[in-house]
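Quick check before the chapter quiz. The format below is the same one you will see on the exam, so make sure you can read both the input and the output lines.
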Amino acid sequence: MRIGIDSGGTFTDFIVVHDDGRLETFKLRSNPRDPASVILEGLWQAAGEKRADVIHGSTVATNALLERKGAKTAFVTTRGFEDIIHIGRQNRAHLYSLVPIHRNPIVGRELCFGVDERSHFDGTVEKAPRKEEIQQLKTKLAAAGVRSVALCFLHSYQNPENEQIVAELLEGEFYLSPSHFVCPEFREYERASTTVINAYVGPLMSSYLSELQKRCPHDISIMQSSGGFLSAAEAGRHAVRTVLSGPAGGVVGAVEMAKLSGYGKVLGFDMGGTSTDVSLAEGRPREAQEASIDGFPIRVPILDIHTVGAGGGSIARVDPGGLLRVGPESAGADPGPACYGAGDRPTVTDAHVVLGRIGPDQLLGGTMHLHVDRANRAVNCIAGQLGLDRVAAAEGILRVANANMQRAIRVVSVERGHDPREFALAAFGGCGGLHACEVAEELGIATVLVPRYAGALSALGMLMADRMRDYAAGVLGRKDVEDRFRELELRAAQEIPGAQIERLADLRYAGQSYEITVPWNGQDPAAPFHEAHEKLYGYRDPKRPTEIVTVRVRARVATPALNFHWEQRAPKAKPETRQVYIRGRWHTTPVLHREEAPAAKTAGPALILDYGSTTLIPPGWSFQVDRIGNLLITRDAQ
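Here is the expected output.
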């Protein structure tokens, strides 16, 4: 038995692959105060006393970073460079703000310490750290109540010897995060930031996983941000690699399910309870080597995902200027949208209830009753402030939310040289299908795909992901590139026996300050770089010398394919209908379960219900279910 788990802001999703290959899905309400209790409850419900392999998308590292609830961390670096994480790059995130808000680093200046050591740019050690100084440092760290230490010495990516000396002297006293282990790459600020974040969230991730494994008999792996999974032990040491683990599972699931339906170019549109994650893939998920989380750079392999605070629980409000705003604040799991029965603030979900798109007894297969009267009262508050009736206010909430999500999709497509009209929009998450056609229409996209198990696709993607580890070594200015590759491959073979090995490298034109990661071509390393550079920036210069900055090795163990057996039920002779407000008027709309949806193309409007999600097909769109159960929606010719 294999179980995929995605911990979301509102619900925790479970996908179970039984011994006979049968798939089962269910949801439980998330508990932000004790996420492990929900995981354990779901595992017992799914497996009982049977043993299972569990792949878990964790939000522990993400929440600890965003909420500033990580371990008390010290930053230890080369003397004279204690201000690295406070100075940063001096980039201006808000060019035209006269009073920009400075985001304080997660380690205060009083916990930044310098060590009298030095290595040159080529790795030559000029001065080794003295044992007496480190013993004094250890005393200071203990007196300050430090739990975790980030070690980041100058040029340690070339030669980690000095970091290793200090790490050995501090071993056993603190959670240690040396930069040569976390991010052995050049650029001292990005390396320091990544190392500090790993030190900050690592103790929480380690203790969370240890407690989880003590309380359940299953083997647990953790989804990482690059689209593969790690063992729990690896995730405890590489916590920074899990900051986007849930969304990464959704990207993998969307790409793999779209391939099964014959679509290679896909825009992922994952709308959950708290946020919407968008991505772009051309046959495989697009990856980056650096991202920014809460304003702090992290330099690890990570799927290229753009997130906006627009989800089913996003709260609608009228700002002081009288404009309607939606998000980024969310009602979350507690109290949740007003229609859940505890909250009273209007959300996107409440707007759908008012407009008839979500019925009172359709969520979670009818097991969760919604309070329509509470949704009406919540939206009435917005309507009163705007001088509108309730229906117009609800429609306005959805239009603002759609505009936020359209902008996010343009970031990963138009702003990066891609025409969204050439892609299919793969919509998933609990709310993705309710917005997909309207969002696609505004962007000129003609095809929407709502995968099977759309409400739990991130959990499904975790079961489709491969086991993966990434290794890197800085080689700027070095001649022993092949030797560095072999060192990384030896580590990979020892840590993941039997893995397939892939070589990659970061290259740039001499004098540039940015790199492109390309597959390694031993005979002509620059050839794939020139091609990638032209695709990204519109030109190539084969006569210009290139530099190899970083070499990378990816070790991968493939996961067996899942069996998607689809059984279609005969539709009811007279399907249920509901009055649904679409494009300014009420429509009598058939309501079908996915199993009853036709294999032949059928004109909208329609509502398609799943256990964990709902899809709205407006007039002007047609739909059908394909051989594996994916819902294909196409725009009618105008």
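If your answer matched, good. The radius of gyration is 26 Å.
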